[in-house]
Specification:
Blueprint lengths: L4 E7 L5 H16 L3 E5 L5 H11 L8 H25 L3 E5 L2 H11 L4 H12 L6 E6 L2 H11 L12 H17 L4 E5 L4 H15 L10
Parallel strand pairs: 1-3, 1-4, 2-3, 4-5
Length: 218
């Protein structure tokens, strides 16, 4: 039985979701300690991290797009069964940097495989397990790409060198996902300064997972 809460962080490249997650983790860890799990995709597990290295390696320019989509799904399956589900069974608050929606947006729309096809692959991989809530950090594509160019030159991976049209398709797919599942999606304006985005995220976490906060903090 799942008694914890699973919340994913999503957004196009340059939205700052990883920076926000790191800041949130720093604030929550002292109080939640072992009741907090911070994880990521692809990765979050020994086997999944090895798959991540293959997916994001800039030398793998000949990787077939369906191979890429299947590798993401395989990594996600391993991550889910070895890390996420045990944490939820242990009543933990699970905050994950990306999940299924990333595959639907990036491979389904960005790579033009088809959003429904990629969703179906991941339905099989996850047995339909979705986050309780998804915090979506919304930012215009051009703003996000400018951030990447300015701050991430030493961390550019294979997906960071795509065309602007690719990222526009990804952004549009996220918009569709948010509209189709508005009860799950929480949209945060990621164009704000990082401090304000972190505060907005913390406020949303207190609203949707109040059991992990003291009354004073709420």
């Amino acid at each position: 039985m799942q008694t914890g809460k699973f919340i994913s962080f999503e957004g196009t490249d340059g939205a700052g979701k990883t920076s926000v997650l790191n800041a949130v983790a720093k604030r929550l860890t002292p109080q939640l300690q072992q009741k907090l799990l911070i994880t990521r995709e692809p990765g979050g597990d020994f086997i999944s991290e090895q798959i991540r290295e293959v997916i994001l390696n800039r030398q793998n320019t000949t990787m077939d797009i369906r191979t890429e989509a299947l590798l993401y799904a395989a990594s996600r399956r391993q991550h889910l069964v070895s890390t996420i589900l045990p944490a939820l069974a242990d009543d933990k608050l699970v905050l994950c940097d990306r999940y299924v929606d990333s595959s639907i947006a990036y491979q389904g729309a960005g790579r033009k495989i088809g959003e429904t096809k990629v969703a179906d692959i991941n339905l099989f991989a996850t047995d339909g397990v979705l986050p309780f809530k998804t915090i979506y950090f919304d930012i215009p594509v051009k703003v996000g790409l400018k951030r990447i160019a300015a701050h991430r030159q030493e961390q550019i991976d294979r997906l960071d060198v795509e065309t602007i049209d690719f990222y526009e398709r990804v952004h549009a797919a996220y918009d569709r996902l948010a509209l189709a599942d508005s009860n799950r999606y929480i949209i945060i304006d990621a164009t704000q300064p990082l401090k304000l985005v972190v505060e907005a995220t913390m406020n949303q976490l207190k609203l949707v997972a109040p059991e992990y906060f003291t009354e004073e903090e709420i």
